[in-house]
């Protein structure tokens, strides 16, 4: 580029000399426009501005200046010059400049939105983008249908609608562009992919994300993480692992430095990838690994609210709700208005059964962020408490080879209707239960109706109910109390008068039983738990049946779709009277182990199908008859029909010895639960 005061000869033979030896203004302006058209707007701008220093009315130089500024992204300055000088361009060129100015307003609106979100000023975050959308709509009415400016405006509108979370409109507009065979650039396809993902269409989202990634331009972190989430929600965990591994490899801790003497600049994208690795471990049920990763991030950035919230989520997934709450409170101290922090507080309040705080937190969030899927789901779960709910379970069995316990046929079911929860944690319920058995001496059946009230609050639970077969009978009473002392220990106390645990054949002789039970549970985390139960059933014929049992549950394998648990159990029972007309051995002992496996075979958001199987064996001993092995097997299905309704069913087989006789039993089971 010749110096600013260079004579005409410095520009070659194509430029004639003008007044005072300066280059001819028209010739130099023509060179500037050719440079712009060849893809060099910066050079064109410099040449055009030189012309305007000594020929301020040169129309070509003015047009080239405005066009070059627009090409360089200086839309506002170009728009001001265009409005000031109003050069005589063709209408298509005028429309292009209006579209350029609209693009500038979109870019500024996105930046304003991000700035307000960083400062938790959510009420004003969409003002600039909403104004830019109004401008786009006005341009669409001005531009001729099918024009280049019209197509570009419709494409830009996809981006604005996505930023405003108007996902339905994004998809509808994109489909209209496709029907008209309009070429949609990759930056707008990324917005459409986000909309499909938000509308629970992960396969379509993944396809569009792939198109953006494979287009040749380096995709943004948002596109690559969006692709990861689309694969996760499509249940393609192996492909998602490859995407995350590539993200991990391609995202350095520090930004590159042209000058090695300057201090290193942290790469903010690295933090987002590291937090995604924590979530990925949680998705795959590797909760211990997720917690370790979250703790490592917290040690590196102890005041980063996103990191703190990630640690709280990892603690909650392990069942440590009080720890999670303390961690979330720390995030709230740093950023009390932050959206993610407030949601974390609401979810922890839900798990801790702090219902007033849950309501105070989630209802303003749902009003402020109506399109956020996580907030919407938590708010729906809060609203579920204001509805009736129904649950039921039943089984039917046939036995061969003995009738000491189960009879040749047996069955039972229980149906319970719950009222909505009150704000203070109370609700009432009504239930019906039925038990039936066919013994050598005849069939025995018991129907029972019951009503009760219960309260849950702050991880405390008490309930009281009365039940009976007829209004004239002495009613049965049930009282219970349960409490978590911390994240590890829980105890439960239960007493029942006219207890349903009384053997059916004892009830046939008008006997009843009083049950007293105490239970202590220790839970290390989501993978390991132990329970000790002490019980005594005082039957009105003078028999006192006392028992003790212990159970240890250990999860031995877990992944996104599979989970395997090993259960070890010990139990002992003593009856003070063994000469009864129902099964009542003086002493029994049992030591067993059971392997359980769940396979999440299919899932689509709120709908899922799970298969489960369990195999158990035990060494069982009965006084007077010695020891014998016992076997149990079960196979079942669980269908999650909607977010609030599920049904389960299964079949099973067991073989055990009672009073020296081996009894084999086949049974079927059916259950359901849901919100009305």
From TrEMBL:
Residues 1-30, 568-587 are annotated as: Disordered. InterPro entries: PGA_export_porin_PgaA, PgaA_barrel, TPR-like_helical_dom_sf. Residues 402-664 form the PgaA membrane beta barrel domain. It comes from Salinicola lusitanus. This is Poly-beta-1,6 N-acetyl-D-glucosamine export porin PgaA. Gene3D superfamilies: Tetratricopeptide repeat domain. It comes from the Bacteria. Pfam families: PgaA_barrel (PF21197). NCBIfam families: PGA_TPR_OMP. Residues 572-581 have a biased composition (Polar residues). The lineage of its organism: Bacteria, Pseudomonadati, Pseudomonadota, Gammaproteobacteria, Oceanospirillales.
């Amino acid at each position: 580029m010749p110096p600013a005061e260079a004579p005409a000869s410095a520009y070659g033979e194509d430029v004639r000399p003008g007044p005072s030896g300066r280059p001819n203004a028209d010739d130099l302006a023509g060179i500037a426009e050719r440079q712009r058209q060849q893809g060099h707007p910066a050079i064109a701008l410099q040449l055009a501005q030189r012309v305007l220093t000594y020929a301020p009315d040169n129309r070509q130089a003015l047009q080239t200046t405005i066009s070059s500024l627009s090409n360089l992204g200086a839309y506002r300055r170009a728009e001001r010059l265009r409005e000031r000088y109003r050069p005589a361009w063709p209408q298509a060129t005028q429309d292009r400049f209006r579209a350029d100015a609209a693009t500038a307003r979109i870019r500024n609106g996105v930046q304003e939105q991000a700035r307000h979100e960083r400062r938790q000023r959510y009420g004003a975050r969409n003002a600039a983008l909403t104004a830019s959308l109004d401008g786009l709509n006005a341009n669409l009415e001005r531009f001729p249908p099918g024009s280049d400016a019209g197509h570009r405006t419709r494409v830009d509108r996809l981006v604005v609608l996505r930023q405003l979370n108007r996902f339905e409109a994004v998809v509808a507009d994109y489909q209209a562009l496709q029907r008209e065979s309009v070429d949609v650039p990759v930056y707008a396809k990324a917005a459409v992919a986000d909309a499909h993902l938000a509308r629970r269409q992960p396969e379509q989202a993944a396809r569009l994300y792939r198109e953006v990634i494979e287009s040749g331009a380096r995709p943004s972190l948002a596109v690559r993480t969006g692709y990861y989430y689309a694969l996760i929600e499509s249940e393609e965990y192996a492909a998602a692992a490859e995407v995350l591994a590539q993200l991990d490899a391609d995202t350095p801790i520090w930004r590159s430095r042209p000058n090695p003497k300057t201090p290193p600049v942290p790469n903010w994208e690295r933090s987002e990838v590291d937090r995604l690795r924590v979530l990925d471990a949680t998705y795959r049920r590797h909760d211990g690994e997720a917690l370790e990763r979250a703790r490592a991030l917290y040690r590196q950035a102890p005041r980063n609210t996103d990191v703190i919230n990630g640690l709280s989520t990892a603690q909650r997934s392990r069942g440590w709700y009080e720890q999670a709450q303390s961690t979330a409170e720390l995030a709230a101290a740093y950023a009390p208005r932050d959206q993610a922090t407030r949601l974390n507080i609401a979810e922890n309040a839900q798990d801790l059964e702090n219902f007033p705080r849950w309501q105070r937190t989630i209802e303003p969030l749902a009003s402020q962020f109506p399109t956020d899927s996580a907030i919407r789901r938590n708010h729906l779960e809060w609203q579920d408490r204001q509805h009736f709910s129904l649950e039921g379970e039943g089984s039917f069995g046939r036995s061969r080879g003995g009738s000491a316990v189960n009879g040749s046929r047996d069955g039972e079911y229980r149906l319970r209707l719950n009222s909505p929860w009150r704000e203070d944690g109370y609700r009432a319920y009504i239930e019906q239960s039925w038990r039936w058995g066919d013994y050598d001496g005849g069939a025995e059946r018991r129907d029972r109706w019951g009503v009760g009230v219960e309260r849950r609050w702050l991880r405390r639970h008490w309930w009281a109910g009365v039940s009976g077969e007829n209004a004239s009978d002495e009613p049965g009473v049930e009282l219970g109390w349960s409490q978590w002392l911390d994240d590890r220990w829980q105890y439960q106390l239960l007493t029942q008068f006219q207890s349903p645990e009384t053997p059916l054949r004892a009830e046939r002789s008008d006997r009843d039983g009083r049950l007293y039970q105490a239970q202590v549970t220790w839970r290390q985390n989501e993978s390991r738990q132990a329970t000790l139960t002490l019980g005594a059933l005082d039957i009105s014929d003078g028999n006192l049946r006392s028992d003790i049992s212990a159970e240890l549950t250990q999860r031995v394998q877990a992944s996104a779709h599979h989970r395997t648990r090993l259960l070890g159990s010990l139990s002992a029972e003593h009856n003070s009277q063994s000469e009864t007309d129902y099964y009542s051995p003086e002493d029994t002992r049992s030591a067993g182990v059971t392997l359980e496996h769940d396979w999440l075979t299919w899932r689509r958001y709120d709908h899922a199908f799970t298969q489960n199987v369990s195999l158990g064996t035990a060494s069982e001993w009965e006084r007077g008859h010695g020891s014998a092995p016992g076997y149990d097997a079960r196979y079942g299905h669980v269908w999650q029909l909607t977010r609030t309704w599920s049904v389960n069913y299964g079949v099973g087989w067991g073989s055990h010895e009672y009073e020296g006789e081996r009894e084999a039993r086949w049974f079927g089971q059916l259950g359901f639960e849901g919100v009305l």
